[in-house]
Every structure is written in C-alpha cells, then in structure tokens.
Amino acid sequence: MQQNITPQPKVIRHILHDDGQFPNSSLFLLIYKEAIKLTDNDSSVFKKIFKSNNWTNSWLNGIYNYHHYHSNTHEVLGIYKGNANVQFGGPNGIAEDVSKGDVIIIPAGVAHKCNSASDDFKCIGAYPDGKDYDIKKGEPSERPRADENIRDVKLPDTDPVYGLDGPLILNWEMW
C-alpha cells in the first residue's frame, strides 16, 4: 500500500433512494475521511492512486453548484485542496462536509452538488475503466433512458483507493 494511503479510514455510508426527480441508487454513497495524506495541494497523488486501481479519465476542478448525476458510470472524487459542503441525493438528500484528503465514491444515478466551498477548494474526479460520463440534471425527459443506463452500469472491479479489498468492494459486493 502506498505511504500516502490511510490503512483504515473512517467510512461514511449513505443509501439515497429515488426521490422522483433523481434516481439515486441502492448502492452506498461512500465517503472515506482522510483516506489520503497530503503534505501539499498536489492532485497527482490522487491521480496515481486512482490510476493504479483503473479509475481514470480524470479531471481537475470543483463540484458543480447544481444537482446533477451520471447515468452511465460511477464516479470517485478526491479532495486535494480546501473543503466543501456537498449535497447528495437531490434537494431532500443529505449534506456532508468534505475536506483535503477525503475520497467520495458516488454510485451511478446519485445526485450531487456543491452547496458551499472554501475559496481554494479543488478535487479530482475519475471513473472506473476510464469511462466517459454523461451529465443529467433531473429533468423528467431524462428518464426512463437514464434508469436503463444505470441498470447497465457494472460494479467496478476495484476500489479506487484500496484496490481489490477496499471498502467499496466490501460494501457493494452484496449487490
């Protein structure tokens, strides 16, 4: 295991159900608190770890300030700078504070948006097998096609941080 990786992070789990506007998922939204130890604000640590576990097609930015989801892939976000409050599951979902070193694994269909963030907030996103992602905003016309896409998304082969034995595998293998 890489020296930057916390061996046993605190794992926050949420199931977010379909609210009529956003499909959400029966898979756990997973947040690994302080999973990656960073000495600076370097996104490359996350990128290398994600890539070593076949989560690629990465980008650097923040999190959109509107509710959206991806119907064709799961997503991982690694916070490498600052902190934010992120809403999951749509307007009636839950909000969590995330900060530098945290990892968020978002199942296909789970809505997410940034409620607020520090001025320096940055994250890196990636997808299992380097999948290209779509962006859905919860419009009625997106469904049922989005629901079909979500049903077709396979479970990832690896956890984006911990590989074959990570919390994602342990929490999603039952599905």
Give a written overview of the molecule.
This protein is mainly β and 175 residues long. The protein has a single domain, classed as Jelly Rolls (Sandwich), CATH 2.60.120.10. 13% of the residues lie in helices and 34% in strands. The protein contains 3 helices and 9 strands, in the order E-E-H-E-E-E-E-E-E-E-H-H. The chain has helices at residues 44-52, 145-152, 167-172; strands at residues 10-16, 25-33, 55-61, 75-81, 83-88, 94-99, 103-106, 112-117, 122-128. It has a 6-stranded antiparallel sheet with strand order 1-2-7-4-9-3. Strands 6-5-8 form a 3-stranded antiparallel sheet, with no helix packed on it. A hairpin with a 5-residue loop joins strand 5 and strand 6. The chain starts with 9 loop residues before the first strand and ends with a helix. The mean pLDDT is 96.
